[in-house]
Amino acid sequence: MARLDRFISGLLADRSALGFALFRIVAGLMAIRQLLTYVRDLSGGFYGDFFALPYTSFIPAPTEPIYILVLVVGILSAAALTVGYRTPIAAVTCFLMVTYHLSLNQIWYRHNRYFLVLSLFLLCFAPCGRALSLDSIRLNIAPVGSSWTAFLIKVQMTLIYLASALSKTLDPGWRSGDVLAGRGLGPLWEETMPDPIITLIPSDAAVRMLTIQALCSEFFLAFGLWFPRTRRLAIWWGIFFHGWIEFQYSVLAFTYLTLGSYFLFADLRPGAKLWSYSSQSPFHRFIAGLVPWLDWLFQVRIATHAERGHRFVDRDGTVYRGLLAWIMLAANLPISFIFCYPLSWLRFLPWGRSHDAVETTGVQSPAVPAVATAIWMSLYLVFLAVVNLYEPLRIPAEARRFWDLPWFFGLMCLMTAIYRRSLLSGSFAQTSTVAHATESPFFSPSPAPSV
Question: What's the pTM?
Answer without folding.
Answer: 0.88
